[in-house]
Specification:
By secondary structure, the protein is α+β, with helices and mostly antiparallel strands. The chain has a 5-stranded antiparallel beta sheet with strand order 1-3-2-4-5. The protein is globular.
């Protein structure tokens, strides 16, 4: 499955097709909190960086399509480990960044 940048709404049906080609029940993604876009089939944000995103704005998540609400998003990815930004684990630790990501995903992921 090729990497895809999402900057406009994508349906859950389309995400399910992508999930089937990846891990079955979830989609890995990298979200640019500044530019409000996401890269599906996360390649550590390389495609977004080639498209002009800054590494410090990129956060890795997993989207579990059978879940709803806040449970849709898991804030876990190796790219989130960045002690220089105060994030020392795979989780997105900053609640404000989590809210930004939820808002972006809510806008990008349709019903």
């Amino acid at each position: 499955m090729p990497t895809q940048i999402v900057s406009a709404a994508i349906s859950r049906d389309e995400l399910r097709r992508i999930a089937e080609q990846q891990f079955g029940d979830f989609v890995k993604a990298v979200v640019d909190v500044q530019r409000q876009r996401a890269e599906l089939h996360a390649d550590e944000g390389a495609v977004l960086m080639q498209d002009g995103s800054r590494p410090g704005d990129l956060w890795g998540i997993n989207l579990y399509l059978a879940r709803a609400g806040d449970d849709l998003i898991e804030f876990d990815s190796m790219i989130n480990v960045r002690p220089s930004q105060g994030n020392r684990s795979r989780e997105v630790e900053d609640a404000a960044i989590q809210r930004l990501i939820r808002n972006i995903v809510g806008r990008l992921v349709g019903p």
